[in-house]
Automatic annotation (TrEMBL):
Cited Pfam families: HMG_box, SAM_1
Comp. bias regions, Polar residues: 222-234
Annotated region of DNA binding: 123-189
Annotated region described as Disordered, given as residue ranges: 80-100, 206-242
GO terms under cellular component: nucleus
Domain called HMG box: residue spans: 123-189
Compositionally biased tracts (Basic and acidic residues): 80-90, 206-221
An example Gene Ontology biological process: regulation of gene expression
Keywords attached to this entry: DNA-binding, Nucleus
Any one Gene Ontology molecular-function term assigned to this protein's record: DNA binding
Native source organism of the sequence: Cladosporium halotolerans
Domain of life: Eukaryota
Designated name of the protein: HMG box domain-containing protein
Residues in coiled coil: none
Length: 265
């Protein structure tokens, strides 16, 4: 049942290709994925974009949200991609369309999203069996000078060539570390530090104060109105924003002077 839920969630997220390796690494249920680390995902060969999708889904599950309730919008199918790539029958923006069509085609600026600070006191999640094997293998002087891609390939090949006894030893160590982690996590959840962090999260996710937002809107409207009045009537209402002496002198400067004209006799 647990593996079935894991398979269904991965299929919904478009990550079904990682099911086998996750089950082999003792991540055989969706609950077990809450213990997976960035190092584990890297060691398992999960692509960076796929890691973010999986981590986001695990985080939503931790907040009680359904994974299948969010529509996956990942990679487009190969057929759809090939059909749309290189097409020339689509109309191009022309001058008569104006700037509206160009603005519609322009990439939209990504909105900044605030993130809460991580809990520094929470117990650190342990690595998986594959992660433990990768950590030990990276100590080997023969592969320390290689790049990350080469190291990952070598690690994966050597892991597949391990005997069942050695692999079982890594799995046993990983399960023991995870069991210890869950005990420490349960103990930590009863501490004042955990309660303080939960209060911090509650304050962080609170909506902004409506009264403060209303005051800021009123200030913005007043500032905009004043600027519009000054720009529309710079010679009249703009004097109200000048010191009295400068305004009086300005009137004298603008007043027309009498010019005497001599008539010929």
């Amino acid at each position: 049942m647990a593996t079935g839920m894991l398979s269904a969630n991965l299929d919904h997220l478009g990550l079904s290709q990682y099911l086998r390796i996750l089950v082999e690494e003792a991540f055989s249920s969706w609950e077990a994925l809450t213990c997976i680390t960035e190092h584990d995902l890297n060691a398992l060969g999960v692509k960076l974009g796929h890691r973010r999708i999986l981590q986001s889904a695990v985080a939503r599950h931790g907040h009680g949200e359904s994974v299948t309730g969010v529509q996956y919008r990942g990679n487009i199918t190969d057929s759809a991609s090939k059909e749309s790539y290189g097409r020339t029958d689509a109309p191009h923006p022309t001058p008569e369309h104006g700037n509206a069509s160009l603005k519609a085609c322009a990439p939209q600026k990504r909105k900044y999203i605030r993130h809460a600070a991580p809990d520094k006191n929470v117990p650190e999640k342990p690595p998986s069996a594959y992660g433990l094997f990768s950590q030990e293998l990276r100590k080997d002087l023969k592969i320390q000078g290689l790049g990350s891609n080469q190291t990952s390939n070598i690690t994966g090949k050597r892991w597949r060539l391990l005997s069942s006894e050695v692999r079982a030893a890594f799995l046993s160590r990983s399960r023991l570390m995870k069991s210890t982690y869950h005990i420490r996590l349960t103990e930590y959840q009863q501490t004042k530090e955990c309660a303080d962090y939960q209060d911090y999260l509650a304050d962080f996710h609170k909506p902004p104060d409506d009264t403060k937002r209303l005051k800021n809107n009123e200030k913005s409207k007043f500032s905009t109105s004043a600027k519009n009045e000054m720009s529309s009537n710079p010679g009249g209402d703009g004097d109200a924003f000048m010191p009295p002496k400068i305004a009086k002198a300005r009137v004298e400067w603008l007043r027309p002077t009498a010019v005497s004209v001599e008539h010929p006799h």
